[in-house]
Amino acid sequence: MELTGAMQELLVGLLLYGDNKDAGIIRVLVPPDVFDTHYKRLAKAALAYHDRYQQAPGEHSHEVIASIIASSDSDKKLYQRILASIDASKDNINRKYVLESAAAFEHFQRIRTKVADVLDILEVDPTPEGVLRASGLLAEAAKPNQSVGVSDINMMNPIHLIRLFVEDDDEVLVMGIPAYDRWRAGPERGGLHMLIAPPSSGKSWWCIYLGKMALRQSWRVVHITVEISAQNTGRRYLQAIHGWTKRRVGRVERSRLIKDEKGLVIDVDSQWVQRQALDSLTRRARKRMLSMAPHTRLRIKGFPSGSLTIEQLEAYLDVLEMTEGFVPDLLIVDYVDEMCVTSHGKRRYEAIGDLYTALRGVAGKRNLAAVTVSQASKEAEHRRWVTRDNAAEAFSKIAKADVGFTFSRTVAEERLGLGRLNLIRARNDGGVHTRVVISQSYDTGQFITDSALMEDEGYWGIMDSYGGSASGDD
Q1: Cis status of the peptide bond prior to 53, with omega within 30 of 0
Q2: How far is CA 314 from the centre of its chain?
Q3: pLDDT score recorded for residue 407
Q4: Angle at 196 between CA 429 and CA 351, to 5 degrees
Q5: Which helix (H) or strand (E) holds 284?
Q6: Residue 263: CA count within 13 A, CB half-sphere
Q7: The pLDDT value given to residue 115
Q8: What is the pLDDT of residue 296?
Q9: Would you place residue 456 in the very low, low, confident or very high pLDDT band (cuts 50, 70, 90)?
Q10: Where would you tag: which of 29, 31, 271, 429 has the fewest CB atoms within 10 A of its CB?
C-alpha cells in the first residue's frame, strides 16, 4: 500500500487550509518524512506554521510556499502547479475520506514493521516465550491507532457532543427545490439517493440535473452511465449547464408555474425563449467553454449494460484518484439495475437488492454522496402517482436508500412540460409525502426549471382546464 502523490497533495491541502485538529491527526498518521521530497517540504512548512500560530496558513499559504520556491528555483513550476491544484480543490477536500485513507496507510505500515519484528523474534527465540512475545506484537499491530479519531464519536468528549448539535451544510447537496431543501432531502455524503420513475420519463435527465447542481456548488462529480453512452451524457451536461438545445430550433416554448403567496401552484402558462444550439457553436466558443470550471470537476465513464460490477466501479474510482488526484464528492450511477447482476444462487430481485446495498457501502467508505435511479414497473405508467410499490423487480431497493423520490406525470402534463415529485423516503429528516410540481424543458436539457408545492384538489382542477388530468388510481 503506497501513499500516492494524489493523496499526499490532499493531505498537504488539509495542512494548509484545514484546522489544528487535522494537522494533529496528520502529524501522527503520516509524519512529514513519509512524504515524497516536494510534498515533504510543503508539509513541514505548513506544520511549522501551525506550531507557531496555532492555526492553518489558509490565505497565507502562498507566502509560506513562496519561501520554499525561493530556495529551490529549479522546482518553481512544480510547486506552482501543486499549489494551483490545491487551491482549486481546497474548499471541497473530502476530509473524512482523506484522513481515513491516511489512517489505513499508517495501520499498514505498522503491521508491516511488526511482522518483520515477529519474524526476527521467532528466528532468534523459537521457544514458547518467544512465540508469546511474537503473538503480543501481532495483537498490537492489529489494533487501529487509538490516538486519533477521524469519524468516531466519544460521548464523554464535549467537542464531540457539540458536533452532534450542529449540522454540516456541506454534507448535503442543495437541489434547488425549496420544498425539499428545507428538509435537507438532497444527496448526502455517506448515503444513497434514489428516484423511481416510469420508462422514458427522464430518469437520466434527473441524474444530470443533480450533477449540474453539484458542479455549481463546487463538488467533484463522477457520472457512471450504463444506460446511454458517455458521449451523449456529456452532450446532455452541456445542454443542462448552458441551457442549449441539441439542434437549431430557434425559440423554445417553456411552461411557467404561477404561485400564490404560500408557494402553491395556482395556474400554468407558457413563454417562448431564444436558445443557442449545441451544433451551432463556433470553434472559438467551444474552446472557451471547455476551459470553464464546472467541466473540470466532472468525469463521465460509460460501461456496456450488464457488465459493470461493484468491484470494477471501485477500481475505476481508485484509478481516478491515483492518476488524476480526483476524489469525487458525488457519484452518479445511471443506473444500478443495468449493472452486472450476479445471483450466486439468489433470486434476481435479491441480487439487485445486494447491488444497492453495495453502492451505499461505497458511499459510506469513500464519504461521498451516491445517486441512482430505478425504473418503475409497467403498471406505473397508468397510475396518477408512482409509489414505492411500483419499483420494478425489487421492492426492497427503496429500503436501501437514505432518501427516495418518485416521479410521475400524465399525458396532459407531459404535453405541458410538467411533472411531479413525491418524497417517499427520508431516513434522517421529515418531509415525507411532500408533493411538488415541476416545470421542465428537456429541449434545453432542464429536468427542472421551476417548482411549487401542490394540493391535489386544486392542481387537478388546473389540469382539467388544460384538457385532462390523470387516469388510474391516486
Answers
A1: no
A2: 14
A3: 94
A4: 100
A5: helix 283-290
A6: 12
A7: 85
A8: 80
A9: confident
A10: 271
Give me 349's grid cell. Answer: 430481485
Instruction: Pull the grid cell for residue 127.
Output: 521457544
- Distances, alpha carbon 155 to alpha carbons 19, 24, 25, 73, 164, in Å: 22, 21, 19, 50, 10
Instruction: Please provide the CATH number assigned to the domain covering 171-465.
Output: 3.40.50.300
Measured distance CA(192)–CA(365) in Å, rounded = 12
Q: Where is average pLDDT lowest: 122-126, 267-271, 293-297?
A: 293-297
3-state secondary structure of 394: coil
Can you tell me the distance from the alpha carbon of 390 to that of 388, in angstroms, rounded to the nearest whole number? 5
Beta strand 330-334 pairing with 192-197:
unpaired
* Whole-Å CA distances, 394 to 181, 196, 391: 28, 12, 6
H helices of 156-229, in order, are 158-164, 178-181, 203-216
The domain ranges of the chain are 5-93, 96-145, 171-465
Determine how many CB atoms are found less than 10 A away from the CB of residue 382: 12
Amino acid occupying residue 281: L
User: What secondary structure does DSSP assign to 319-376, as a single string?
Assistant: HHHHHH----SEEEEETGGGS----TTS-HHHHHHHHHHHHHHHHHHHT-EEEEEEEB
State the sign of the Cα–Cα–Cα–Cα dihedral 189, 195, 201, 203. Answer: positive
Give residue for cell 471547455: 290
Dist CA 37 CA 43 (whole Å): 10
> CA 393, CA 352: separation in Å to the nearest integer?
8
